[in-house]
């Protein structure tokens, strides 16, 4: 015999499917960041009709914001009749590009058996829909609750969240006196609580050379060969050192429990897309972009210093070696304590609703928790939502209806634990 709130959620199965489909059918592709206003309007109309105070916020001046592609966000707040804490569900409404390999229409949101297919189904319109249904069922079941509930739909998570959660946090929307608990329904799987994520440091390194005729390279200085020396130093020293480091963060997959670095791109010499044969020149510049992911146990200063030390060492050993390093972006790791109230509450709700002990994970890449933590100064934040993480950003992405219902029941039970006196 299910509890009353679970029963209410189960009876909303069709409404949940319809809402998920409606969200997927608005193609909020980022880049460029399109149809953001449309998806915010859809949710605003729905939640305003349920008695939410709704605010549309454009992140004017944020990276990517323009009159053509305005960065729209929605915050909706419902106050209970009695005072108490506020629980906030934050979902990003943008989706990544399609890529090749789709066998279904990515914006048709077709239901096949238990699955709804489409770009953003799993990451994370399914989670957004599940949280809306959970909240609506909770309000019907417990109209006299204590505290407040907020739902937000925010822009640009897929490109760093600067036009979304970062902007809202700067404006005070996540100030601890307004919001006490945050749940981000990213697709981490209905049995898992995601406590946080690793840090990231992005930089461009340029090696310098001197142009000369390609038939007499000894009269110039080849920047690509200098970059080869940089890459060798990485292979010899940096990659082995990073592989040795292990974090206490429960990062999944296992390989991401060490420090990692991707070399995003490399380019030297003349542009690689042009017609005809290349002119014969020694390249005087070579650039790489690196994507260094780091652990709670490391510092961003240490990450940078380690790379600078290798470059400086090359300067002393290698004739005419010179470089420039330009930092592109940095994101600090975030990790919510396992004893934080939102963690213990959702953990207990998973056990009660799904009959299993939750597992605790951390994300190899970052998500909007970083802004809620650093800018909003709110530590009581997790990611919890339906969906298979490995499907995110893939072709034929889907979300399971049963998974959405189960996680909605966990969200609803969590609201009961926090908001019923
Ligand atoms: Zn996501």
Automatic annotation (TrEMBL):
Domain of life from the UniProt record: Bacteria
Presence of keyword Hydrolase: yes
Enzyme Commission designation: 3.5.1.18
Domain Peptidase M20 dimerisation: 196-314
Top EC class for this record: hydrolase
Pathway participation: Amino-acid biosynthesis; L-lysine biosynthesis via DAP pathway; LL-2,6-diaminopimelate from (S)-tetrahydrodipicolinate (succinylase route): step 3/3
Stored Pfam families: M20_dimer, Peptidase_M20
Keywords carried by this UniProt record: Cobalt, Hydrolase, Metal-binding, Zinc
Co-factor(s): Co(2+); Zn(2+)
GO biological process, one term: lysine biosynthetic process via diaminopimelate
Catalytic activity entry: N-succinyl-(2S,6S)-2,6-diaminopimelate + H2O = (2S,6S)-2,6-diaminopimelate + succinate
GO molecular function: metal ion binding; succinyl-diaminopimelate desuccinylase activity
Gene3D superfamilies: 3.30.70.360, Zn peptidases
Database matches in NCBIfam families: DapE-ArgE, PRK13013.1
Family classification: Belongs to the peptidase M20A family.
Name of this protein: Probable succinyl-diaminopimelate desuccinylase
Biological source species: Salipiger marinus
